[in-house]
Amino acid sequence: MPIWILRAAYWLHMAATIVWIGGLFFQAVILAPVLSSASSTRDDPRFLEAVRRRFDPLAWLGLAVLIVTGLTQMSSNPNYSGLLVIRNLWSVALLSKHLAIGLMILVASYQSWVLYPQMNRSLLAQAAGTHVGADPGLLKRRQARTIRLNLFLGVIVLALTAVARTA
Hints:
Layout: H1 3-36, H2 45-76, H3 89-127, H4 136-166
Helix pairs in contact: 1-2, 1-4, 2-3, 3-4
């Protein structure tokens, strides 16, 4: 593989990691506390939907870039012996990292395609004066938990990356 492709893969991988993990950090540490405070926008479905519409495409694009560049890096690593060949600390760390990323994808999928639509419907119903569907407070707590869980898994992925890089 030409070295310029590998360099580009490393750069894009780091940039996508910043977008994905940085976005999770922002949501967990900054956005969630602001939304739980006494703010006029915290229950505004347009505000929440605008935040989601802005971040979700970046997160999913970042994930796609991470997958492509990660596979490029993995295949060029001298420790790589083949798919699911576990021979050393590097391969254990990489397998564990990929399992954590799989969990992150499941959590993000639940957020994007189940939880956020439920939250939006609930807030729209509440704004219209009807209280149909799940309790908005319960949904917000679920959102906060899933964001914290994904951030925790992201930190685990970074730690496993450090293990793999030093193995």
